[in-house]
Write a structure and sequence with these properties.
Strand order of the largest sheet: 1-4-5
Distance between the termini: 52 Å
Largest sheet: 3 strands, antiparallel
Number of strands: 8
Radius of gyration: 22 Å
Number of helices: 11
Strand content: 15-25%
Shape: globular
């Protein structure tokens, strides 16, 4: 997102027709150009309005990790992506750096061979998983589906990884370091994946009238490239729905007043010691 944003909900809309609620196919550039608010912008409200305005992200990946994710999306979802393998072992020489820089200027991402092999192994692992392969490969459906709507006058948008034709689910592909139930549950809380899920489910329902479940296909990016599929439970969806709605209302209120406060606004907040200290208040034995 990056930097202060325009008042999205008052935007005149996208050129060519905001009346189109579902757009497929849609390019990444076309999606980004639409001025509606997205869930990434809203999630920063979990910190403060000031963080939301500044485009704060709770956990921003390195460029290398983002490139791996983009290549995975390309090979699984069919997204447009230009890439090549580096003919050099490293970029310490002037010749190697010149080739790398010229290639990047053409919009082509440069990978080491081992990075491409890593992604290929991740894809193979997804294909070998009976549920994940059915969701992403073995049935008809649409990938990278743009959805556009509004909430209380605020334009909003989303980009769904996979919409199967024969199952009442919406699918999100996640590259992660820990796909175990406990590990991914932590990520849901830290990165508010629950809010993303509810935001997309609700927008899809508002457009189509369908209430679909939300499922994640999680794949680890290291050996053995383990895969897990999870569905967000109904209670979590309901709580997260109230959360994104609250954040949109806060966003519009901040726009109306041109006020984007940080922590505690202008007041002094009361704070306590960590619970583990309060529970262990006796003298330490030496």
């Amino acid at each position: 997102m990056g930097g202060p944003q325009p008042p999205w909900h008052r935007s005149p809309g996208c050129e060519g027709g905001c009346e189109v609620k579902i757009v497929h196919p849609i390019s990444a550039a076309q999606y980004r150009a639409h001025p509606a608010i997205n869930v990434s912008a809203l999630k920063a409200f979990s910190r403060s309005p000031a963080h939301a305005l500044a485009g704060f992200e709770e956990e921003k990946e390195t460029t290398e990790a983002m490139n791996i994710g983009s290549l995975l999306d390309h090979k699984v979802l069919g997204t447009d992506y230009l890439f090549t393998t580096s003919p050099y072992e490293d970029f310490r020489t002037k010749e190697a750096r010149a080739w790398r820089d010229e290639t990047r200027e053409r919009g082509v991402t440069v990978f080491k061979q081992e990075e491409i092999e890593t992604v290929e192994k991740m894809v193979a692992s997804i294909r070998a998983h009976p549920v994940a392969s059915h969701l992403l490969f073995n049935q008809a459906g649409r990938s990278q589906v743009g959805i556009f709507g509004e909430f209380e006058g605020c334009e909003r948008k989303g980009l769904i990884d996979r919409v199967p034709d024969t199952m009442q689910v919406l699918v999100d592909l996640k590259k992660c370091r820990d796909a175990s139930k406990a590990g991914f549950r932590r990520q849901i809380g830290q990165l508010r994946y629950d809010v993303q899920a509810a935001y997309y489910r609700d927008l899809w329902r508002d457009i189509t009238g369908e209430t679909r479940e939300w499922q994640w296909v999680c794949v680890e990016d290291f050996e053995p490239y383990a895969v897990a599929v999870y569905q967000l439970d109904r209670e979590s969806c309901e709580v997260a729905s109230r959360t994104w709605q609250s954040w949109i209302r806060q966003w519009m209120a901040c726009e109306d007043t041109d006020s984007w406060p940080g922590y505690n606004g202008d007041s002094a907040g009361m704070i306590s010691s960590p619970t583990w200290i309060l529970k262990n208040e006796g003298a330490t034995d030496f």
